[in-house]
Amino acid sequence: MQLFDWIILIVTLLFIVIYGAWKTKGSKNVEDFILGSNETPWHVVGLSVMATQASAITFLSTPGQAYHDGMGFVQFYFGLPIAMVVICVTFIPLYHKYKVYTAYEYLEKRFDLKTRSLAAILFLFQRGLGTGLTIYAPAIILSALLGWNLTYMNIIIGVLVIIYTFSGGTKAVNVTQKQQMFVIMSGMFITFFLILHYLPNDMTFTSALHIAGANDKMNIVNFSFDPEEKYTFWSGITGGFFLALAYFGTDQSQVGRYLSGRSVKESQMGLIMNGLLKVPMQFFILLTGVMVFVFFQFNPVPLNFNPNNKAMIEKSAFKGEYNALEKKLEDLSEDKKVINLLYIDQLNQDYDNPTLRKELVTLSNKEKDLRDRAKDIILKADRNSETNDKDYVFFHFILNYLPKGLIGLLLAVIISAAMSSTASGLNALASTTAIDIYKRNVKVEKSERHYLYATKFFTLLWGIIAILFACVGTLFENLIQLVNIIGSIFYGTVLGIFLVGFYLKNVQSKAIFYSAVVSQLTIFIIYYYAIYIYPSGQEKLGYLWLNFIGATLTIVISLLLQWTIFRNDKAMVEQTIKE
Q1: d(CA 233, CA 87)
Q2: Among the residues of 315-434, which ranges form H helices?
Q3: Euclidean distance between CA atoms 191 and 194, whole angstroms
Q4: Cβ–Cβ contacts within 10 Å for residue 225, how many?
């Protein structure tokens, strides 16, 4: 980090915070604060929806995911465009018809208070965890790679977000997310083209794709029906569809973005914009990770990208053993460079040499073996160490290979992304707590200004809770997977409640409430016995299926309970008539 990097980083972040607070100050009532007076144009709705989902975790973890596992993660998003269409046709018109502040307010109008409260509490629990993670994820990476204090990083990111979210509510979130998306995508495009520029001079983009393909990084679609496969076309089009439907259709952090639209049509256009651009955006971010992989075929690469592990090994009795593996990796890297250059030369002559391609695969397998052995050494030195280094790959490239100024810009990208998703989370948590829990249970009549101040207070409270959670968080596998796992555990049940409310008019409150409770408990059990207790990569069920299972269970059980209740009521009526 040079002085120029610091200037770019600080100026970018301060501009976003000050502009957001200044532009949106002075909310007169709770409708202003939560719905932004319904003045948001469709393109801002679309950008805000995209920025809410595109957290720092997206830009830290996704390239690392592609570096290690290739492009297959993009299948996770295959169901998203279909979900956008369903939400536009069903969810948005109903939310606007009932003039709700939050998605869960609709559930009381359709069912009863306890169903609304259950859905709101499930949301508060999972979004509270998720919001803490959106702060913690960039903080732990930045602290590890730059030597910054982790606690201070958590507090700084959290406080910056609280300032403008507390000041302007939904308007502030929407306004700042426009600037944040500009910073984010500008930084990613510049980085992508710089990677291509850094590749050997006689290497084309097509040649780079060939090298990635030879190393199994370009396997975009997997049609396997194996439930243990995390990412397949089928899990994306079903589990991914249900996750997207739940997230964009029932999660207040997203619902709040398009409820602020000027009209039903503007809200719908914003979501369609997201549906059209989200998959290409994720494809591009994954492709950036793949290009980082290609770049490291010609440049030195660490044995483990997490610098904490290297520092720990240097102080342990296993230093010599680890250094010996590093020397082997250096030699292997030179061999890789030679073979890759020969392979490119053959490609330039329009010949995809199968012998060289096979040699590339062999060298990649040898490198993977060295990395696995390094992980074993790290665990021998400290059994509590995190050996998974996916989240550190992209940032290692940024710090070591980008020119002055761009490091500051990419840091601004990561922190801006953290701020955008955290702001949406805090705004949604505060809105849900104030409207669905506090206001609904206050027996005495209160003024609109009272509820405005209450919503601001809950914004501050949830901000502090998110910071505290971030400060005690622990790194778990790949961070982008963790966020989606947490969502998948809860989203299916909540989505099932909404789908019953929208489409099954004969199911009443008692049936849906108990079916949701049973479904959620069942999902906890399935997650524990099919996913949690198994090491990474050995799970018996891909976590995306939890969304489909949760929603299906809620719907089926509610129908069975309603039928049982109907039969019992009918029997009681007949008995009464007889008597």
Answers
A1: 21
A2: 319-348, 354-381, 393-401, 406-432
A3: 5
A4: 9
Q: Quick one: tokens of 259?
A: 């409820």
Helix H, strand E, coil C: the string for 482-512 is HHHHHHHHHHHHHHHHHHHHHHCCCCCHHHH
* Eight-state DSSP code of residue 263: S
The torsion of the CA quartet 97, 103, 104, 108, rounded to 10 degrees, works out to 10
The amino acid occupying position 248 is F
DSSP symbol at 70: -
CB 337, CB 375: distance < 8 Å: no
List, in order, residues 6 or more apart from 232 with CB less than 8 Å away.
Answer: 75, 222, 223, 224, 225, 226, 542
Neighbours of 544 (CB within 10 A): 26
What pLDDT does residue 155 have? Answer: 87
Q: Closest Cα partner for 388 from 478, 319, 514, 271?
A: 478
Ramachandran category for residue 100: left, alpha or beta (phi over 0 → left; psi -120 to 50 → alpha): beta
Backbone φ and ψ for 410, nearest 5 degrees, come out as -70, -35
Contact call for residues 98 and 244 (beta carbons, < 8 A)? no
* Three-state SS at 404: coil
Count of alpha carbons within 13 angstroms of residue 395, beta-carbon side: 31
Residues 6 or more apart whose Cβ sits within 8 Å of residue 238:
79, 544, 545, 548
Residue 83 Cα to chain centre, angstroms: 17
Residue keyed to tokens 């030699």: 331
Phi, psi values for residue 261, rounded to 5°: -65, 155
Amino acid at 361: V
Residue with tokens 């069903």: 90
Give the torsion sign (CA, 281, 286, 287, 288): positive
Q: Which two tokens stand for residue 285?
A: 């971010």
At 35 the pLDDT is 67
In contact, 234 and 13? CB cutoff 8 Å: no
Can you give the pLDDT at residue 479? 53
Residue 102 phi, psi (nearest 5): -130, 160
- What pLDDT, on the 0 to 100 scale, is given for residue 478? 47
Q: Tell me if 137 sits within 8 A of 391, measured CB to CB.
A: yes
Q: Dig out the tokens for 196 from the structure.
A: 């291509």
Yes or no: say if 55 and 137 are a contact pair by the CB < 8 Å rule: yes
| 264 in Cβ contact with 55 (< 8 Å) | no
DSSP tag of 403 = P
| Cβ proximity of 215 and 293 under 8 Å | yes
Residue with tokens 């500009």: 182
pLDDT along the chain (579 residues), means of 10: 82 80 67 70 85 72 86 87 92 88 89 91 86 78 73 85 76 71 81 88 84 86 78 83 86 85 90 90 91 90 85 87 90 88 82 83 88 89 78 83 80 76 84 88 80 88 87 55 77 91 90 94 92 78 86 94 82 68
DSSP assignment of 297-311, as one string?
TSS---SSS-HHHHH
Reported residue count of the chain is 579
pLDDT for 36: 65
- Tokens 């803490």 identify what position? 132
Measured from the Cβ of residue 80, the count of other Cβ atoms closer than 10 Å reads 23
Assess contact for 289 and 392: CB atoms under 8 A. Answer: no
